[in-house]
Amino acid sequence: MRPFVYERPTSVSVAIAMASHVDARHVAPTQANTQFIAGGTNLADHMKLGVAQPVRLLDLNTLAEPALRQIRVTDDTIRFGALVRMGEAADNNDVKHRCPLLADSLKFAASGQLRNMASLAGNVLQRTRCEYFRETSWACNKREPGSGCAAMEGFNRQHAVLGTSDACIATYHGDFAQALIALDAVVEVEGRHGPRKIPFARLHRLPGDTPDIETDLAADEVIVAIDVPLEAWSRRSRYLKIRDRESYAFALASAAVALDMDGDTVRQARIALGGVATVPWRARAAEAALQGKVMEEDVAEKAADAAFADAKPREHNAFKVPLGKRTLVRALFETRDMKV
Amino acid sequence: MNQAAPVPKENQGEPVVRIDGRLKVTGQANYPADIATANVAYGALATSSIARGKVSKLHTDDARAVPGVLDIITYGDMDKTDKPKFGNTGASSIAPLHDRTIFHDGQIIAMVVAETFEAAEEAAMLIRADYEDDPPSASFDSKGAKVEPAAGKSPMLKEDVKVGDFDTAYASAAVKIDQKYSTPTQHHNPIELFSTTAIWQGDQLTIQEPSQNVTGWKIELARQLKIDPANVRIVSPYVGGAFGSKGPMTARTAIVAIAARRVGRPVRCVVSRMQAFNTQTYRAETRHRIRIGAGKDGRITAFGHEGWEVTSRPDSYVVGGTSATGRMYNYGSVLTHISLVHADRNTPGYMRSPPETPYVYALENAMDEMAVALRMDPVEFRRVNEPEKEPIGGKPFSSRSLVKCYDQAAQAFGWSKRDAAVGSMRDGDWLVGMGCATAIYPTASAPCAARVRLTADGQVRVQCGSHEIGTGVRTVAGQMAAERLGIGMDKVSVEMGDSALPPAPVSGGSISTASVCSAVLKACDAVRGKLFAAAVAGDGPLAGSGNAKLEMEQEKIVASGGKSAKLSDVFKAMQIGAIEEYAEFAPNGSTPEALKKLYAGQAEFHGGDQDEDSVKYAFGAEFVEVRVNSYTREIRVPRIVGAFAAGRIMNTRTARSQLMGGMIWGIGQALHEATEIDRRNARYVNRDLQDYLVPVNADVKQVDVILVPEIDLDVNPAGVKGLGELGNVGTAAAVASAVYHATGKRIRDLPIRIDDLIA
To answer: What's the structural domain count of chain A?
Structure first.
């Protein structure tokens, strides 16, 4: 492990000032010399593996602002402070009651120990678990732009079928982000030029030709809060995660579903898909296919077909297309049948 | 009732708590890399990123510039040592720093030694190699992989097992199957990482390293370093997960020893989990073709088992499981053939039940298919083919309680509630399936020495250079002494894991309990002999009881007539403070050199299919229920029941724990574990616990172990059949059969995943 400087800023503004070096304006946060660390459950691993090589870490855990550690629930919004731990949010009774999808997506992620360490903002920014990304002797356009992609023709069982490019097929593995994108969450960011709000759907960037650039954030910007609007579909919401083992594994396919029902008829649906795409993945075509329909087998299946219409499977991950569809169908029925 | 401590039945010992249980769960047990070592420097490995070729140039300047780097051991630095050898003691003949040839991905190309672990790691990552690389062969079917018959390539497989006229019997069989099965590459991932610490004091070398074979390693390391074995000591007080991974010594041990000599201080190298995939042994992938022919009555007339196994280019590691599969049932004829496939891979090695796990998986999955083809209940099918004698040599089984195991497990499981029709059982959205399979493991033992000391105040010390690899052997060796000497367990101490102790064989092949307990028994009997002689002597406290039967209990010597004498009084009469006896045990049929070989670090195994009088195996029957989601097809295992008979059970607690752990591993083998290989370059892809999946608690719901009473006095003096490797044999086949029952899909290639069922 390379030596690095470790500093503990005392407020958001101090943290931003410390991060606002010249290089912060030109490189992605993951390539910057100065990087933020919160729970450290992802970055510390990558530093040990040589995947991330920051020369200076700014520890956000010492920021003084109390709101960073709070969950505020009002009639129309749940506001998560960026430093709230995954475990805290998963166990919060208001969150569980008002929007089960949020709590479930956190509960089914990682392990108890990791959930107690990892911050919510850090969690949504977690990097891919692609095996070829994690080990520095493989070619990887995300880790080392222009070096190629070993996964493309290699062992790609866990890789994405949606949102892929010729440069990268690495899956975005997070669970919480699927809930957030489905629920039209908004991310509040502080930076050199003051605060700004980013719709969650615009936080992550498709890999395209630059898979190394993963988000819309600058290297000196800090997420301070995540707002989730509470709507008619929030209570009837669910996260279904399908994986190789029953706990402590990434999704092979997952579905975040929220439904506003009028009897048997879907008034509005909100759907996101995990484990199958390169970024948090909103399935708008599936939502449209359900709107105004009675939720029955063929309707749900058509919605699932729509969600995967553009899927590009590769040698080992073709199963993710039927699995992703069936995961969505099952999640739709389970959500429909929720007692709310 | 405490499930963890089953009430002993006939011929079963008390569920005594593990001697070291409290130390382990409170973190006080010091594993080899935990042992405080003054002035220690740290080693970190640099490894190759190609699988085949040559290192043309090594760039170490950047690494040497890292502050704190003391030395870099690389090509040329091992020239004064002898190369490692492949065999039971040595993991591979590949001598990574003797030779610039690269035989496999992740081969050691250097070791950095530094003041801190962090500096060593950083420097190791900065070492770069230029290669002349050749296209490698990754596995089966790879261009350039060399296929050859396995028989004769290893003492484990002298010839392919066969009997009768298979071809004719198979051709004329009324019902038959011909199917292919496979098991994946699997890697050892013990929670205790692999490590070596080397400490020189003058010309005395101490190695602290987790080991299943301290005596063997002492001899082998001395050979490589060209020093007197008397100057080498291997210390391995606790081992955090062995399962074969710490049986053969790897090339690293000598490298660390040389490094310690060069820097003039102790050196510790803890291998990263990723690097362990390439620098330690593992279970290579296997393929099988099984042909079974039977009459309409279900009696098997022909059994054919062909196996293919991957090994490295230079070494012929043979798994060879047809010895067990060929003797399992009452086949009319048997034809087997095993082939080795040499590829550009690190040399495989032992992993829990090395031959039986893959081979019996194939047999038992095929047996279930055959039962389906015959429209027979799979338990009944096995009952019909229960042999009186093993089919190959016509020898009797020393004991065989398989039918009893099936009966008891089937009843506990509720097999009679199974509806045989495929896909007929459901629980809401979940398809329910039930399957079963046979477990078998050869019962062997090997020469072993032990020293037992009894003091006048009733303290017992047992010393034996065996290894506590989590099996509970320290506890059961203590139990043997406590029982034989009539002393409470609280006054018994047991020392193991040190080559300075009386030698024991490698802790492999499930021989330890039988071998160690037989040696301890012999030493205890020698102590008893001295005490008894003194007790009944003319001036002894039991004078006149010379013809009585004497026993030791509660720190007394008790004569059959009822008279007794306190142990302390016997010692007083003898005018001594302690009796210490050193005993050597050799199994029946041992060669005259067997004990000499023990001191040379070579274990001569007896039992299994080796003996003249009988074949010796332990058996079990396992029943599994699976649930498969009707939408998403994930497979869960809500319960599993296994009944096992293994002669005398020394301790029902440790026996249950072993068998339960085995079945849990079996679930992992069925559903989770597999090392993925990038076939383009023969490199492992998923080298960590993020992507190499093993079952977690949530995957293991109910596991029931039934210990079926069995008495077998032929196997060894202790009457013990090893069961450490019994529990995980057959489990994966039972799961595969249950998945078939639930879904109608017969999955023959492990692991069984959603991918296989979703289509």
So the answer is: 2
